[in-house]
Amino acid sequence: MSPFFTRLKAVASPRIGLGAMNLSHGYGSPVPEPEALRALQAAFDMGYRHVDTATLYGATANESLVGKALASRRDEILLASKCGLAIDPEQGKRVIDGRPATLRRQCEASLARLRTDHLDLYYLHRWDKTVPIEESVGELGRLVEEGKIGAVGLSEVSAATLRRARAEHPIAAVQSEYSLWTRNPEIGLIAACRESDTALVAFSPLGRGFLAGAVEDPARLEESDMRRSMPRFSAEHYPRNLRLLDDVKAVARELEVTPGQLALAWLLAKGDDILPIPGSRSVEHMRENLAAEGLRLDAATVARLDTMLTPDQVVGSRYGAAQQAEVDTEEFPG
């Protein structure tokens, strides 16, 4: 059993974790700190134990927020963060840097912001293609040896890159977008993960709010909301995608659950090694998401959902050209 699964079991964590990003980054204005702190504390109280953050989120503000909210409960949570992708304070833009010295420096800074002496899981947020993956992973392995991190993870990588990386050091988890409307990990990544007892941590398991029915009109989103630049949410593509959601909503009504809960239950049905980390800015939605932990779909329902929102039906890529160039994931034919 990998260190990740061992730690997950030790903290009696539900398989559904909490992505903290939404509170500080990506979806418009950050949640005011007092409200965000209350939300994180409420999430712990309702049962979340796997909490995910990153150096990037809120230009480090999200790590500081998580540290402030949960430091007193550190031993009771599985704490994950990420390195290798950050906001340059001078340029104000995203910078991918996988050089060993940078990763070590970012780890030390993350530990300070999170008010802890170790991280249970530390991901390389993006593979810096100017640095061999073995060099970046090798440095993370040295941080494991020093006790600063418990296990190494990767984010947004292909099966081939995972295999290269794990030849250098065991990889406990790979974080990848995976949901009813983003099936890319099924091309090869899930199989590669299962070769080496690597967890697949599914970010955006609710399709960035789409699967929960939370986005009726992307044009009404804040100007700073990342979804406004994503092709699937464009004025050209979104109406067609929204019509596809009707079938999912119909199944949810039959089962008397919300569409978001149904989407999470579908992921849970894909294997015990698939761990969704939905994010939310709302305590009510956090509670709704966690309640999906108790849902069990029968094989017929899973098969029925498998035929919905398939790659040949969904229109628009998940990222624009610039962000797509940053990732290393397999893609379905366009």
TrEMBL record:
Q: Name one GO cellular component term.
A: cytoplasm
Chain ranges of the NADP-dependent oxidoreductase domain: 15-308
Q: Which InterPro entries match?
A: AKR, Aldo-Keto_reductase, NAD(P)_OxRdtase_dom_sf, NADP_OxRdtase_dom
Keyword set for this entry?
Oxidoreductase
* Tree of life domain: Bacteria
Gene Ontology MF annotations: oxidoreductase activity
Instruction: Give the protein name, as stated in the record.
Output: Aryl-alcohol dehydrogenase-like predicted oxidoreductase
